[in-house]
Amino acid sequence: MPLDIDAVVLSNDRLSPDYNIVSIAAPEIAAQSRPGQFVMVKCGLDSEPLLRRPFSVFEILRNDDGDVAGLSLLNKVVGAVTRTLFTLEPGNRMCCLGPLGKPFSVVPPSDEAWMVAGGVGLAPFLTLAEALQTHSTATTLFYGGRSSQDLYYLDRFEQLGVRLFLTTEDGSLGEPGFVTTPLTRELEATPATQPVTVYACGPTGMMRTVATLAQQHGRVSEVSLEPVMGCGLGGCYSCVVPVRSTDGSPHLVRSCLNGPVFSGDHVVWNELI
Amino acid sequence: MSVVDLAVQFGPLRLNNPLVAASGCFGYGLEYTETVDLSTLGGVAVKGLFLEEREGHPPERIVETPSGMLNAIGLQGIGVRRFIDDKLPALRAHGATVIVNICGSTVGEYAELARRLSDADGVAALELNISCPNIKEGGITFGCDLSGTHDVVAAVRRVTHLPIIPKLTPNVTDVAAFARAAEDGGADGVSLVNTFLAMAIDVETRRPRLSNVVGGLSGPAIRPIAVRMVHQCRQAVKIPIMGMGGIATSNDVVEFMVAGATAVQVGTANFVDPFIWPKLLSGLKSYLERHDHTSAGDIVGSINLSQPDVTWTSS
User: Fold this and answer.
1) Quick one: A11 exposed, middle or buried, by C-beta within 10 A (0-12, 13-18, 19+)?
2) A 190-229 residues with CB < 8 A to B
3) pLDDT in tens, chain A (273 residues)
4) All domains of chain A, ordered by start, with CATH?
5) Could you tell me whether strands A38-42 and A93-100 are parallel, antiparallel, or unpaired per DSSP bridges?
6) ipTM of the modeled complex
7) pTM of the predicted model, to two decimals?
8) Looking at beta carbons, which residues of chain A come within 8 Å of B69?
9) What is the nearest CA distance from A96 to chain B, expressed in angstroms?
10) Interface of B with A in 5-44 (CB under 8 A)
């Protein structure tokens, strides 16, 4: 059941000139959120800017007693709304609507979970890693960015026992190149008898490559797509993505209701803009 | 404490209150059952239906503009058969007053849709979409031509006893003439305005920002033009008007009603705040109480056009 909370900003951790993490007091939404779900946010309900923007829930925040206290969003400045989110101060407010959408399926510990993140596509994977850790599922994160300035929260993932493969396009951290390079290597090195589920979030081209690689190696994949959304609740039909229907032909479905998480095999990648 | 009656009489249609969810902005209604009790709305105008299923336009389908948004969805929809089988029973169970928005490429298709929906259980009224700016075939062809508007309304009139509400386009020089054509054709009311034909370009790539190149502008940006058009239609026709265009607050609801709308539709604002409905209703109720009205109908067309008293003198 989605809720709308005019939430107080608890903190704003600016990680770089264009990345930050905003924490907000929306415990009722956080408590219901499952990995891969999203919220629609907007600062105030004025008409400029008009529409909310979708964000993955990055962290479920807990107080010292372990009670759910709120959630955080991983933000990258790309436009007017994300710039506002970058400048928020504690005590400011943000309207937060959620949780929305279909979550990732959390694989059983018999499987290995491989998460593949490109840049701000890291956003849905901290909550997924935490959910996987509660089942002691062997979890790996392949995490790529342009430079070391794009890779965050490595300590947190290590604390959760996540095996890390880092790549940067400029070679400033981890392996130089794209995140799909170590992914390909590991897919080839892992025996088919070991079940692996691959999760991906990041640029469309990256997700397409990850889904294709997974399929080539007989692996199940789930991708978290990030199309432009108007409402997040299925009312506007703007966030459609092409998926394969039962007869194999492409069919446009709303990613807010049918996603944002889709089976990588179901997405008709060459029709996805 | 006075009791305010929020119900309004829209031609033959009795609405619980003047607030109707706008077609194209509320899915088939069932998407919103977790955020609003559909029976508390005056009505639910469901997403535009053709006879057959439609895929709509490829993305990008929306783009935000100053205090508004452009859309070119292309009337993606499930077609009338699936609507009647899969959606209507559930809408009925939720107690929704269902206004079905219908769209055809020919007069015959409108009539066929009207016939099939008249036989279905749970349809309160038909809204004729003769104003979608985003599709090439049908719809707006009728809405931009006076005899086309008249003829499509008359054809639907012949096959149904359901209330008929043609939805008018603002993309004409004289919208009041189209309201008159609809009235002459036998419409029970008119709804206006649909979106304004508009366009946005990404100056870096120099490409249109919508895949369809052009789209329809909605949101608060269009509100003053829509209010003007409701006012003009009110002067021109006797049938009731369902006003819409950028309504975001209860003051906006009142403004449209004072201009001459018996009921209003709310669209884009529901995207921003799906919990907006009780806020709009309580705001409307407060306004009516503050102005000593006992019924929402009292304020319809209550605009005061007399010259204000001159309370100053020049020296």
Assistant:
1) middle
2) 227-228
3) 899 999 999 999 999 999 999 999 999 999 999 999 999 999 887 888 999 999 999 999 999 999 999 999 999 999 888 999 999 999 999 999 999 999 999 999 999 999 999 999 999 999 999 999 999 999 999 999 999 989 999 999 999 999 999 999 999 999 999 999 999 999 999 999 999 999 999 999 999 999 999 999 999 999 999 899 999 999 999 999 999 988 888 999 999 999 999 999 999 999 887
4) 3-100 (2.40.30.10), 112-225 (3.40.50.80)
5) antiparallel
6) 0.92
7) 0.94
8) 50-51, 230
9) 10
10) 24-27, 31-32, 34-35
